[in-house]
Amino acid sequence: MRREPAGVLPLLITGAVPLILVGNALWLLINPWLVDVEYALPGFPDTPGLSKGERSELADAGIDSIRPAGDGVELLREARLPSGDPAFEQREISHMDDVRGLVAAVLAAWAIALTLAFGVALWLRRRGDPDAVRRALGRGAGLTLGAMTVLGLVMLIDFEFFFDGFHAVFFEGDSWRFNETYTLRQLYPDFFWGVAGAALAAFVLIQAVALALVVRRREGGE
Known about the structure:
Blueprint lengths: L8 H21 L3 H7 L12 H14 L8 H5 L11 H37 L3 H28 L1 H12 L12 H5 L2 H31 L2
Helix pairs in contact: 1-5, 1-6, 1-9, 5-6, 6-7, 6-9
């Protein structure tokens, strides 16, 4: 029996791949291990008035507060400085709540993309068209590589431009701007975000390259 063309369905897989790979990387990064690794890097700025243990504890609370599950920004309301004063002002807490909302939205898109891609791939394979799935995955890997290469170059050339532009798109006004007196700024200086951004781009690129290689190997094995 002659198969009908797969139509636009493979395009859904192709479009879902970048979202899936970014979501995977984000899931990996929003964990306290990131704080431990970054704080151990040579040249990471010190935080005046906080020991390494106190700084790590507060930074871990910040990471935990943006994860969709758990206590959220209530962790920040409960956090205290060594003096006993609140560690975070309401403006900082509000911003982290906004960040938590953004993370939740990205991970929701990741879950939808993963479900959609799996469902379409399963349907195409059941109708006897595995080649369409492989081609779609390969195009998705290529799309991801291209997009992340461009973003990576922008970050390398002018990270501040990228950082400011990202926040201008996803956050209202100057709600994300904090001077050096704020705890958030002391815990997560520019150094932190530069490394985190590079790690996110690297994790996405590694996944995209691995997917492209797997697809090419499967095509070559036929």
